[in-house]
């Protein structure tokens, strides 16, 4: 995969535009909302280890998992405030700063994992990434990880759009995630990631949607009986570095940081792909009902909303995305 190389070039150019760097030896704060058992956290820890080693101890990274420094929206704000230096965030949240960054978090905009790979290796993504840096005041998408294909969990099968009707489903608090439930007649309920387990357990919401690795790591299968493989979003996680912090790193250390983040993003991507190949059977062994789903009726219902024009990305940009062939 060429993702690391492309993102490193984009990020290096953005960092140089921030002005002359100065030395800084204090620890960088790397914060995210994922559990310590998730591959993304393992990748963050590896990034911290490698960055310290390759800078000969000039810099270190402290990792703060599981929303310990705030929920995802707060972490995004923290990049510009200087309270955090590196975060994991979904495209939907990045899209609140620069709309096109959210495009692939909308349902069925990516056909499959090969299309996901091809997009993040494309000139189109380089343009989107540069646009995000400009709109955010210098924050840089330093790497992209595959987060997984999102599926619906509930206490019943969800095999057709009709099964979504009136279902109160938790979604992340970002517009990209609201479109799928709205188009299928469900009631989307935005809610912070850290609150979902209790909300499902107490019946505050009927359902939620996430990749299989997250369903396992957050133990949602303990409070939901059914997983329906809707695969409605092929999800990405951006590793974003604060422009404030980048201005404090030398060119050499910035380059090391981008290399480390790219390598560990590839590590988590491979781990999540491998996990997805085994987790369906694992969930069935736990007594969970896992249902294969015909995605065509869902795609048909959602399609009009993707070309309505009332989205944070242009129709032209969407067509460019669809024109990208699947990676070989």
UniProtKB/TrEMBL annotation:
Gene3D superfamilies the record matches: Bacterial extracellular solute-binding protein, family 7 (3.40.190.170)
Which Pfam families is this protein grouped with?
DctP
Report the locations given in the UniProt record. Periplasm
Which CDD domains does the UniProt record give? PBP2_TRAP_Siap
Keywords, sorted A to Z: Periplasm, Signal
Keyword set includes Repeat:
no
The record's InterPro entries line, in alphabetical order, gives: DctP_fam (IPR018389), TRAP_DctP_sf (IPR038404)
Q: Which NCBIfam families match?
A: TRAP_S1
Q: What name does UniProt use for this protein?
A: Sialic acid TRAP transporter substrate-binding protein SiaP
